[in-house]
Amino acid sequence: MATSLTWLKKNDIFDSSMRKMSINIPLENDELEFSLGCAVLFLKEYSNDKRQTPYFEIAYYIVLKCAINNNEYEPLLDVSSNFGLYPISKYITKNQLHSIGGSAEFTLSYQLEKYFHNEITETYEQKKFREILVHSKKEENCYIAPTSFGKSSLIIEIIKSKNLSKASIVVPTKS
């Protein structure tokens, strides 16, 4: 199935749109529609096989660039809220960069509240792994995550939740 999208490499609209997005030029309506349609195809491929992360990355790039360059934030809000990138969703809603309302906005607000912890909005992955580690019965755990992923606050939370009298924290020299 993954090879079914190879035709995009030779598509003039896709090529032109990607070039414009990469140098922050707003897209015309037909380019915007086509590019966002391609993003949907990439997300579908990724949803079929989560190992195919390049499909998610290119889809996210497209919706992010459409948001920034064309001031079209609804696709980015959809992707961020459906794929667990809740800090992005929170930013868009907090700054009113969307036009959703009514029950959809209520549902999104409710969903975002579930990912608010220690005064930050966590991603789906952050919350999932934080809860696994905090509730782990193991005496030894390893958690590797990028900078600003909440590791320090996680360590404090684990120590407090387990009432430990002694704890050893091993970090790389460069930390």
Summarize this entry quickly.
The chain is 58% helix and 2% strand.
The structure class reads: mainly alpha
How many distinct beta strands? Answer: 2
User: Largest beta sheet, briefly?
Assistant: 2 strands, antiparallel
What is the quaternary state of this protein?
single chain
Strand content: under 5%
Low-confidence stretches: none
What's the rounded overall pLDDT mean?
A: 86
Helix content: 55-70%
Distance between the termini: 43 Å
Q: Judging from the principal axes of the Cα atoms, what is the shape?
A: elongated
Give helix and strand order, one letter per element, not per position: HHHHHHEEHH
**Strand order, biggest sheet?**
1-2
Evaluate the radius of gyration: 20 Å
Put simply, the count of helices is: 8
Structure characterization notes:
This protein has eight helices and two strands. Helices cover 58% and strands 2% of the residues. The longest helix has 20 residues, at 29-48. A two-stranded antiparallel sheet has the order 1-2. Helix 2 runs antiparallel to helix 3. The N and C termini lie far apart (43 Å). With 175 residues, the chain is an all-alpha fold. A hairpin with a 2-residue loop joins strand 1 (116-117) and strand 2. The radius of gyration is 20 Å and the shape is elongated.
